[in-house]
Structure formats: structure tokens, C-alpha cells
């Protein structure tokens, strides 16, 4: 069964985006049909241009389609990525989530298989609070949260049971190989769990 999976990520300076690509790769390796989507920018062009890393990342991902509500509706599984902002997800991702009221009211977000990942400037700057605060939204949706946990050897090494994350030193550092492998594992695990769920449903076992 081919799982339809969306990776929906906001990234200003590219650190979280590196994880998004690895997550997408992991999901594809499990046979999922993947849509990698960037969350719409809300910051003014002057702010972006004033930061060379932000400008460069924005130019680099220009050709990537922006996330639409239709992607959420389409997907059976969704992985959300965001940098930490004062220990919370970005306003850009929150704005995207705040537009889901119509889908929510129609029950179209129920049973989405979801997971989240992030990057932060420092090791203790709020990785876990950022990821877990997204779960508040997931609870309201009635989504099924699939964290990476310690469900593989790589997770024992990465130590990120809530979701892949790393300290980017404010956009100066890209993820190391362990973090990338952990992000690939998270993408693969979400795709596999969603496939199991869908297969159970179609065989009449799950309901
Ligand atoms: C307004 C603002 C608030 C931030 N708050 C935090 C924070 O609370 N903790 C932290 O470790 N890093 C914080 N950062 C740093 C970013 O989370 C970090 O550089 C992140 O890796 C950037 O991801 P990106 O390259 O995908 O945009 C903040 C950055 C900005 C601009």
C-alpha cells in the first residue's frame, strides 16, 4: 500500500530544511509517495535580505511548492518541521496550522499520522518544547502521533525520542550524519506505521 505523505516545513536559514529533506528521503525509502512543501514566508523582504543566510535559503527553495491545505487533505501522514522561536514553533508554521479550521470542522484531520522535527540555535534552547507544543494541535485534530522514540539503534545514538532535532548554532551548522540518519528513520517510521494502519483498515482488521 503506497502511503501519501507530506513533509511540511518552515525554515528561515536552512537548518531545519536539511532535516526535512532527510525525513522525505526516509519516507521515500519506505515506498511512500512524498510531497515536500515549504511553509509560506510571512516576514518582509527587507528582513530576509538583511540576513545573508535567510536570503540564500529563500532563493535556494524558491522552486519548492508552498504548502497548501490541499496537501494536508491529500496526505495520510504528515511530518511538520520548524525552527524554535523562544521555545515554540514559528509563527509561519502556526499561521499555516491556524488555517486548518475548515478541514478540522469536516473531520478531515482525524487519524492523520503525524510527527514533528525541529532545529534550535543551542542544545538546550527548546527542541522538546517546540515539538511537544505542536502536539496540542495534533490532539485537537484527533491525529495519531508517531514519535521516533528509541525505536531503532540510531535513536539510541541520536537521543531524540520526540523528533529529530539538533543545535544549528543559529544557522551556522548543518546536521551531522547521526542527526540525518535519525531524521531518515523518523520519515521511514511514520510511513511504515501509516502503511500498517491503512493495510489494517483495508483488510477490515482495524475497524
Ligand atoms: C526570533 C528568534 C527566536 C529564537 N529562539 C530560539 C530559542 O528559543 N532557542 C534556541 O535554541 N534558538 C532559538 N533561535 C534560533 C533558531 O531556532 C535556530 O537558529 C534554528 O536552527 C534556525 O532554523 P532554520 O535555519 O531552519 O531557520 C531563535 C531565532 C530567532 C530568529
Can you give a write-up of this model?
This protein has 207 residues and is α/β, with parallel strands linked by helices. It is 45% helix and 15% strand. The protein has nine helices and six strands, in the order βαβαααβααβαβαβα. It has helices at 15-29, 45-49, 52-60, 69-74, 91-97, 101-105, 127-141, 153-158, 177-202, and strands at residues 4-9, 33-38, 77-83, 113-120, 144-145, 165-167. Strands 1, 2, 3, 4, 5 and 6 form a six-stranded parallel sheet that branches. Strand 4, helix 7 and strand 5 (144-145) form a beta-alpha-beta unit. The mean pLDDT is 97. Flavin mononucleotide is lined by residues 11-17, 83-87, 119-122, 125-126, 168, 170-171.
Task: Outline the fold blueprint.
Blueprint: E1 4-9, H1 15-29, E2 33-38, H2 45-49, H3 52-60, H4 69-74, E3 77-83, H5 91-97, H6 101-105, E4 113-120, H7 127-141, E5 144-145, H8 153-158, E6 165-167, H9 177-202
Parallel strand pairs: 1-2, 1-3, 3-4, 4-5, 4-6
Helix pairs in contact: 1-9
In short:
The chain has 207 residues and is α/β, with parallel strands linked by helices. The chain has nine helices and six strands, in the order E-H-E-H-H-H-E-H-H-E-H-E-H-E-H.
CATH architecture: 3-Layer(aba) Sandwich
Secondary-structure element series: EHEHHHEHHEHEHEH
Helix count, DSSP H or I runs of 4 or more residues: 9
Going by helix content, strand content and strand pairing, the class is: alpha/beta
Number of domains: 1
CATH superfamily: Flavodoxin domain
Q: Which ligands occur here?
A: flavin mononucleotide
The count of strands amounts to 6
Radius of gyration: 16 Å
The CATH class assignment is Alpha Beta
Residues in helices, as a percent range: 40-55%
| Poorly predicted residue ranges | none
Instruction: Give the end-to-end Cα distance, rounded to a whole number of Å.
Output: 18 Å
Amino acid at each position: 500500500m503506497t502511503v501519501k505523505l507530506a513533509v511540511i516545513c518552515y525554515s528561515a536559514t536552512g537548518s531545519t530544511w536539511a532535516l526535512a529533506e532527510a525525513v522525505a528521503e526516509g519516507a521515500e525509502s519506505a515506498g511512500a509517495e512524498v510531497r515536500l512543501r515549504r511553509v509560506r514566508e510571512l516576514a518582509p523582504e527587507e528582513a530576509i535580505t538583511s540576513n545573508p543566510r535567510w536570503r540564500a535559503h529563500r532563493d535556494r527553495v524558491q522552486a519548492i511548492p508552498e504548502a497548501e491545505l490541499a496537501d494536508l487533505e491529500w496526505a495520510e501522514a504528515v511530518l511538520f518541521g520548524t525552527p524554535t522561536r523562544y521555545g515554540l514553533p514559528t509563527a509561519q508554521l502556526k499561521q499555516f496550522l491556524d488555517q486548518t479550521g475548515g478541514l478540522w470542522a469536516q473531520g478531515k484531520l482525524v487519524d492523520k499520522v503525524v510527527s514533528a522535527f525541529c532545529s534550535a540555535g543551542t542544545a538546550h534552547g527548546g527542541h522538546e518544547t517546540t515539538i511537544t507544543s505542536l502536539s496540542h494541535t495534533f490532539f485537537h485534530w484527533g491525529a495519531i502521533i508517531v514519535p521516533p522514540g528509541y525505536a531503532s539503534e540510531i535513536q539510541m545514538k541520536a537521543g531524540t525520542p520526540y523528533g529529530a532535532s539538533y543545535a544549528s548554532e543559529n544557522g551556522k551548522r548543518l546536521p551531522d550524519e547521526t542527526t540525518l540518519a535519525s531524521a531518515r528513520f523518523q520519515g521511514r517510521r511514520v510511513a511504515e506505521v501509516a502503511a500498517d494502519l491503512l493495510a489494517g483498515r483495508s483488510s477490515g482488521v482495524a475497524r
